[in-house]
Each structure stands twice: as C-alpha cells, then as structure tokens.
Write a structure and sequence with these properties.
The complex is a heterodimer of chains A (about 130) and B (about 100). Chain A has about 130 residues and is an all-alpha fold. Chain A is about 45% helix and about 0% strand. Chain A is globular and about 50 Å long. The chains are: A mainly alpha (about 130), B mainly beta (about 100).
C-alpha cells in the first residue's frame, strides 16, 4: 500500500456522530484529481464483489461499511478508499470464520518472504486488525 | 417480499407529499441516516420500496423485518442554517422509515 498522506481532521462541533459521518464539517478542499487504480485496488474491488455475490454471501456491503465506520477517526482519515476496504475484507473473513487470523498472517509472511528473496522492496508496515 | 423496489411487506407509513422530520437521536452501530439531516424537517418525495434493513444486515443478521425506504426532500436552508445560495434549493436523501416521524 502507498504510504498514507492523509492526516486526522479535527471534528469541530461534530456532536455524537460516527467517524465517517462528516457531511457539513470543515474538512478542507476535496481532492478531485482523477487517478489510475493500482492492481491491488482492482483486486480488492473484485474480491468484494465475489465475496458479497449471491453465490458466496460471505458478508454484505452493509457489513463492510460497518467495519470501516468502526475504525475510529485516526485510521479513517489516514487511509485511502481501498485501504479501508482491504482491511475490512480481511477482518470480515475472520469474523465470519472463512479464514483464521493465523492463516492470514502465515500467508502474509510467506508472501513477504517470497518478495524479499526476489529482491523486491517490501513495505514493513502492517495493517492493524 | 423484501428487497424489491415497489413491493412492500407492510403498508408504508408515509406517502409522497407527507411532511416529516428526522429524529435528532444518536445511533449505535451502522446507520444510513446522515447526521446533517437529524432534527430537520422535510417532505416525502418518493417511496422507493421495501428493503432488508441495512442496520441489521451489517451485523450478519437477515435484515428482517424489511424497512420502507423513502426519498425525502429537505430545504437547503433548513439543513444548513448559513446557506447562502438559492432560497428554493433543496437536497434529497434516502431515509428508512424508522428514521422518520410525522411533522406535528
């Protein structure tokens, strides 16, 4: 994942609203620049579609939203759209007993090792659960 | 029937033209009603149909009973007290029936 460039925004006069529900708060200018999606972002989108499809129904888009909304302000503001999605997909797979946390962490370690061995740059930061 | 626009598991409480308002309550958990319309008066612009309840679907429950979804029209001046553009401007928000009350 690219390093997050975003910062946590102060929510002045936010009342009791959730971290994602920021309509009308002062949040600075909206970044309207178009950008190409990275391969991992396209794969994340495809995974969401497959996992919520009628044949699979591992969870719903509503569940995906709920997990993202529960991140808290800091993680919510500092992550991009698909960074939010991939973390939620992973956590929902564990929540729904599709995969275990150990299986995912073991596989992530294998993938890191594979890329390191091949001499590729590997991002050290881990996505929090 | 659920999740089908135009079909209802029970009769809709409101019809187009009805004057409603959104309760100014907080919500615990997943909620589709944006904060900025809570406590605001509006008018029902359309009845979309009956759909499984996203507030329950979000927690892996069946989302039943289905809830009627409305398109509600608000005056921008009511939503944003400092709104400076046209007096007649409005915003439309899709809102589920548990988040609507009749205007007194």
């Amino acid at each position: 994942m690219p390093a997050p460039k975003r910062k946590t925004m102060l929510r002045q006069g936010a009342g009791g609203r959730a971290a994602h529900d920021v309509g009308g708060l002062a949040f600075g200018p909206i970044d309207r620049a178009e950008h190409d999606l990275a391969l991992w972002e396209k794969r994340t989108d495809a995974m969401q579609r497959l996992l919520t499809s009628p044949g699979k129904r591992a969870f719903t888009v509503d569940g995906l939203r709920r997990v993202i909304e529960d991140y808290g302000e800091q993680a919510y503001d500092r992550t991009t759209y698909y960074e939010k999605w991939i973390r939620a997909l992973r956590n929902l797979l564990v929540e729904q007993d599709v995969l275990t946390r150990e299986e995912i962490e073991r596989r992530m370690a294998e993938v890191r090792q594979k890329h390191q061995t091949a001499g590729r740059r590997v991002v050290k930061a881990k996505v929090p659960w | 029937m659920v999740s089908a626009a135009g079909s209802f598991s029970r009769p809709p409480r409101f019809k187009p033209g009805d004057r409603v308002w959104v309760p100014a309550r907080a919500a615990l958990g997943h909620c589709r009603t944006p904060w900025y319309v809570r406590g605001k008066p509006g008018v029902v612009a359309a009845v979309h149909g009956s759909f499984r309840d996203p507030e329950r679907l979000a927690y892996h429950r069946p989302g039943l009973p289905a809830q009627v979804l409305y398109k509600v029209r608000f005056r921008q001046l009511d939503v944003w007290p400092s709104y400076l553009a046209g007096q007649a401007d409005h915003i439309e928000v899709d809102i589920y029936e548990p988040w609507l009350e009749p205007q007194p």
